[in-house]
């Protein structure tokens, strides 16, 4: 399996109801050599129109945070929990998330990121069973030997200047952590999942 195969499978996917209302599926995008995978919720209107993740208002916030951290979008890999837009941007339901999760598992197993950056509550809940991201953001989680970094969803920062600062600082910290990991240094894990 290659990222290109996953992309084609996502583009042609009809496994859940969301295929009926989408314009375009939105496969993950970015470098297969990335140390980090960013995981959002689901495509919005602009993403559905263009077939690319995080190209609308939330995407601008994410790009700005990456830029402040000195990182370009091309260096990283960006994807979503579900790859098709839910009507009226509703939160994807359990069935849709479960059906779509094969793709994100495949993306992770190919890229083997040093860390996965969870953007907001839907990704937090889907990948780690968590809730209340604002309480847990900034923390590093380890589950099944995979590291995760938690932060707010870029869309939440659109009308909230304080959250922009939070997101930007979190992303800077994430890349400090990645630097440590690349140098094989021990990093502090805040939450260990043991089951
Ligand atoms: N919000 C998301 O969660 N993902 C996108 O791709 C765009 C907006
Ligand atoms: Fe397939 Fe995922 Fe789109 Fe549903 S959301 S049709 S499972 S790609």
Corresponding CATH superfamily: Uracil-DNA glycosylase-like domain
- H-E order: HEEHHEHEHHEEHE
Can you list the ligands bound to this structure?
uracil, iron/sulfur cluster
Task: Please identify the structural class as seen in this structure.
Answer: alpha/beta
Strand order of the largest sheet: 1-3-2-4-6-5-7
CATH topology: Uracil-DNA Glycosylase, subunit E
Number of helices: 7
Please mark out the parts with pLDDT under 50 across 5 or more consecutive residues, or reply none.
none
- CATH class annotation: Alpha Beta
- According to DSSP, the number of beta strands is 7
What sort of overall outline do the alpha carbons produce when their principal axes are compared?
globular
Keywords:
about 200 residues; single chain; alpha/beta; about 15% strand; binds iron/sulfur cluster; Uracil-DNA Glycosylase, subunit E; seven-stranded mixed sheet; 7 strands; binds uracil
Write a short abstract of this structure:
The chain has seven helices and seven strands; from the N terminus they run H-E-E-H-H-E-H-E-H-H-E-E-H-E.
Task: Write the SSE topology.
Layout: H1 3-11, E1 29-30, E2 36-40, H2 45-50, H3 57-68, E3 77-80, H4 94-111, E4 115-119, H5 121-128, H6 133-136, E5 140-143, E6 146-151, H7 161-182, E7 191-192
Parallel strand pairs: 2-3, 2-4, 4-6, 5-7
Antiparallel strand pairs: 1-3, 5-6
Helix pairs in contact: 3-7
The chain binds uracil and iron/sulfur cluster.
């Amino acid at each position: 399996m290659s990222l290109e195969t996953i992309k084609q499978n996502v583009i042609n996917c009809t496994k859940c109801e969301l295929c009926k209302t989408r314009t375009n599926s939105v496969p993950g995008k970015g470098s297969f050599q990335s140390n980090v995978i960013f995981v959002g919720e689901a495509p919005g209107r602009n993403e559905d129109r263009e077939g690319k993740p995080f190209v609308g208002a939330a995407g601008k916030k994410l790009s700005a945070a990456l830029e402040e951290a000195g990182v370009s979008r091309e260096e990283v890999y960006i994807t979503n929990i579900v790859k098709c837009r839910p009507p009226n941007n509703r939160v994807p339901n359990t069935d849709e998330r479960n059906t779509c999760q094969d793709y994100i598992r495949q993306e992770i197993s190919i890229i083997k990121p040093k860390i996965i950056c969870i953007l907001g509550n839907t990704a937090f809940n889907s990948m780690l069973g968590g809730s209340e991201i604002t309480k847990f953001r900034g923390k590093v989680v380890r589950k099944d030997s995979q590291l995760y970094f938690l932060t707010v969803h870029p869309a939440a920062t659109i009308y909230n200047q304080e959250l922009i600062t939070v997101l930007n600082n979190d992303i800077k910290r994430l890349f400090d952590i990645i630097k440590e990991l690349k140098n094989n240094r021990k990093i502090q894990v805040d939450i260990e999942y043991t089951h």
